[in-house]
Structure formats: C-alpha cells, structure tokens
C-alpha cells in the first residue's frame, strides 16, 4: 500500500508537536512524535539500569506500534505520562545520541510510515527518517520567542524555573542538536521553512495546507499522479 508521509522538523519549542497534531487531525493521518520513541528507549535503559556504552541493549527486540496517538511496546500500551518522567528528561539526550538506538528507531519509524499515512515530527525526519516524504516542513523561531513559549508552559505545569534558565537550556539544546555526530539537526534542501515567531497556530496550519495543495496540483499534472490527499 502506498502511503503519504509529511515530515515536520525544527528547532526545540518551535511548535512541531502542536502543529503536527492539528495537521494530522485535519488530514485524518496518524500523528507520530519521534521523540517519544527515544523516550521509550530511555525508559527501558532506566529499567535495565544501563550505563553509557550499553544503551544499544535498550532497543533489542524493540517492537513498537503507534495507533490513535498511543504507543505500544510488544502489544502493551505505554502511557505517555510515563514517558514524560523527569528521570527520562535527564537521560534521553545521551541515549538518543547512541548510533544503534538511532538506527533501530529510524527503521521502526520507517516501517510504521509504510503501513499508514503519517504526519511525523522530530529533528531528522525529512533528512534521515523520511527522505522521500511527500511534504517536508522545517519550523523555526527566534530563541527569545521559543524560550518564552517554553517558560509559560513550564509555569502552567507548576515547574519552578526562570526565563533565564529556560533560555540557556534551549540555547545549549540547539548547539547539541546541530553538532551531534549522528543525524544532526539540518534543514532538508527540499523543505519549506516557516518562521513561527510572529505567526498564530492557525496561520501556520493554513500555510502548510497551501503547500499541500501546491504539491497536489503539481502531482495532478504529472504523469506520476495516482491519488489525492483530499
């Protein structure tokens, strides 16, 4: 079965998950946040008490499925709240940097995308995971705006922090994401770049829907046209 894949990449707190969820609902596609699979691998690493250099053992027999926004491991649902634990927050970056972990999760994401239409978000989706995606989007925003958004989210969640701490954390995260040796954050050459700094959510969705229609129009007029998103 031929499936449609929409890849959304971007810097931290640029709106990837929010935009991705809304777009997936609009198109009736499966929404996949690749970050949760890395968090799942991190959860396994914690449960097995794995140390640096052993993280690849967390993805041995890593059989994952995603359905209606829920994540299943070996057929059992893993609550998303469990994957947001602060202990996972502290370890997910080093686990995600493990080359074997990234290779296994990339293959799982690719397998899932061959089974259903997806809107997939992450930091290397258009460049590594789904290089053949029907549409690639890269979201960005100023560091100040992203820090402001994240700070407000954390305050609403009751987290005791400061804007300065959030700002510095995001700044460091940008450096790590763009400089890591395996699958660094890059803008795919065929991606549409959207600066969300001064845009509302519905304005971003409208832009993406216009891009989809443009791609559809081009496809309709090509010899490779087969079916439509709409």
UniProtKB/TrEMBL annotation:
Compartments in which it is found: Cytoplasm
Residues holding ATP: 10-18
Biological processes annotated in GO: pyrimidine nucleotide metabolic process
The EC number(s) this enzyme carries: 2.7.4.25
Superkingdom as given in the UniProt entry: Bacteria
Domain named Cytidylate kinase: residues: 6-212
Pfam families: Cytidylate_kin (PF02224)
Keywords recorded for this protein, A-Z: ATP-binding, Cytoplasm, Kinase, Nucleotide-binding, Transferase
Catalytic reactions of this protein: dCMP + ATP = dCDP + ADP; CMP + ATP = CDP + ADP
SUPFAM superfamilies, per the entry: P-loop containing nucleoside triphosphate hydrolases
InterPro entries: Cytidylate_kin (IPR003136), Cytidylate_kinase_dom (IPR011994), P-loop_NTPase (IPR027417)
Main localization category: cytoplasm
GO CC terms, sorted: cytoplasm
Enzyme class, broadest EC rank: transferase
GO MF assignments: ATP binding; dCMP kinase activity
NCBIfam families reported for this sequence: cmk
Family stated for the protein in its record: Belongs to the cytidylate kinase family. Type 1 subfamily.
Protein name: Cytidylate kinase
Natural source organism: Caldisericum exile (strain DSM 21853 / NBRC 104410 / AZM16c01)
């Amino acid at each position: 079965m031929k499936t449609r894949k929409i890849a959304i990449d971007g810097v931290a707190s640029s709106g990837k998950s929010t935009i991705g969820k809304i777009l997936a609902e609009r198109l009736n596609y499966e929404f996949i946040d690749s970050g949760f699979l890395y968090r799942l691998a991190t959860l396994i690493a914690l449960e097995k008490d794995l140390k640096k250099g052993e993280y690849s053992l967390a993805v041995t027999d890593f059989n994952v499925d995603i359905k209606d926004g829920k994540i299943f491991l070996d057929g059992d649902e893993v609550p998303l709240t469990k994957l947001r634990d602060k202990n996972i927050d502290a370890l997910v970056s080093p686990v995600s940097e493990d080359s074997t972990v990234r290779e296994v999760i990339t293959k799982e994401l690719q397998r899932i995308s061959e089974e259903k239409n997806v809107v997939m978000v992450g930091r290397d989706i258009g460049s590594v995971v789904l290089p053949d995606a029907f549409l690639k989007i890269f979201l960005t925003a100023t560091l100040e705006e992203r820090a402001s958004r994240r700070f407000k989210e954390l305050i609403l969640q009751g987290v005791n922090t400061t804007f300065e701490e959030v700002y510095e954390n995001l700044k460091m995260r940008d450096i790590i994401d763009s400089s890591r040796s395996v699958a660094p954050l890059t803008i795919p050459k065929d991606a549409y770049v959207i600066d969300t700094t001064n845009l509302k959510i519905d304005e971003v969705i409208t832009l993406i829907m216009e891009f989809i229609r443009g791609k559809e129009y081009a496809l309709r007029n090509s010899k490779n046209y087969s079916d439509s998103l709409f």
